[in-house]
Amino acid sequence: MIQQVSDSELELMKIVWAKGGTALYADIMEELSKAGRSWQKNTVITLLSRLVEKGLLRTSKIGRRNEYAAIVSEADYQAAQTQSFLNKLYDGNVKGLVATLIQRDMFTAKDYEELRRFWEGGTKENE
């Protein structure tokens, strides 16, 4: 089972996924800086270590630099967390989730049409 991660850990995972599934420590720090995050080195290293312990990342040395590689894909993580959310809040009932989205105007007619096209085997949403 894929473990849930904190928001900060997820932010690091998104960076690794965006880099094609592998990223050097320096790349991660650069992306954090671009996003306006001024996290300390020890904070980032601690978060990355937790992700390794949770089985989402593995680390290897390239010379003196650390490279982090995703063990779990973004799609697999999203699917696992969606299933966990669905089970926790809706007892696994997808219809209940969709009903909530519709009743609270979180699911628009455009969303419906894009999903219908997807379901029918159409192309991407920007068709």
CATH topology of the largest domain: Arc Repressor Mutant, subunit A
Helix content: 55-70%
Mean pLDDT metric: 93
Which secondary-structure class do the elements indicate?
mainly alpha
Taking the alpha carbons of the first and last residues, their distance comes to 35 Å
Q: Any idea what the CATH superfamily of the largest domain is called?
A: Winged helix-like DNA-binding domain superfamily/Winged helix DNA-binding domain
Give the percentage of residues in beta strands.
5-15%
Strand order of the largest sheet: 1-3-2
Give the helix/strand layout.
Blueprint lengths: L6 H12 L3 E3 H10 L6 H13 L3 E6 L2 E6 L3 H17 L3 H10 L5 H11 L8
Antiparallel strand pairs: 1-3, 2-3
Helix pairs in contact: 1-3
Which terms would index this structure?
127 residues; Penicillinase repressor fold; 2 domains; three-stranded antiparallel β-sheet; mainly alpha; elongated; Arc Repressor Mutant, subunit A
Task: Describe this protein's structure.
This protein is mostly helical and 127 residues long. Helix content is 57%, strand content 12%. A three-stranded antiparallel beta sheet has the order 1-3-2. Strand 2 and strand 3 form a beta hairpin. The mean pLDDT is 93.
Short description:
This protein has 2 domains: 7-70, Orthogonal Bundle (Arc Repressor Mutant, subunit A), CATH 1.10.10; 74-119, Penicillinase repressor fold (Orthogonal Bundle), CATH 1.10.4040.
